[in-house]
Amino acid sequence: MLMKKILISAFALFALIAVACNKQNDQTMVRFHNTLGQDITDAHMDFDDDHKTDVGFIPAGGTTNYIEFDYFLTGDDWPMGTLAGIKGGEAFSAWSGLWCGTGVTFKQLEPGLYQIDIVHLGVDSLGWNQLIFAD
């Protein structure tokens, strides 16, 4: 009887691990690496009014844990959302700088693990804060 319970418990544990591993392979997981000299707090990635994901704290020189995204739009291999938060005590909103008028092709990011390097927050030629993503 004890052996039967152990066998059933082992099978249930194996099934849970298999389901968890398979589910992660079907998810889009993104982490953010802050190459800037200041922490970013209260960060969130917004694609539109319905698709917003909290990122939280991104330490200077640090990387977040992987964050699950149900929706992640890209354009010609650039993330197409707006990253917003607070840096140096000031609120900012920054994006990749591509838009439909440039002929960019939009698509959903395939499930997998990705990292976005935050390499620049500054004003572009149009006077907008522009976020440049790198591999």
Strand content: over 45%
Can you identify the CATH class? Mainly Beta
Helix-strand sequence? HEEEEEEEEEEE
Number of domains: 1
Nearest-integer average pLDDT: 78
Low-confidence segments, given as residue ranges, are none
Characterize the overall form: globular
| Helix/strand structural class | alpha+beta
Strand order, biggest sheet?
4-1-10-11
- CATH architectural designation: Sandwich
Span between termini: 55 Å
Helix content range of the residues, please? 10-25%
Explain the layout of strands and helices.
Elements: H1 2-25, E1 28-34, E2 40-46, E3 52-58, E4 67-69, E5 73-75, E6 78-79, E7 82-87, E8 90-95, E9 106-108, E10 112-123, E11 129-134
Parallel strand pairs: 1-10
Antiparallel strand pairs: 1-4, 2-3, 2-7, 5-6, 5-9, 7-8, 10-11
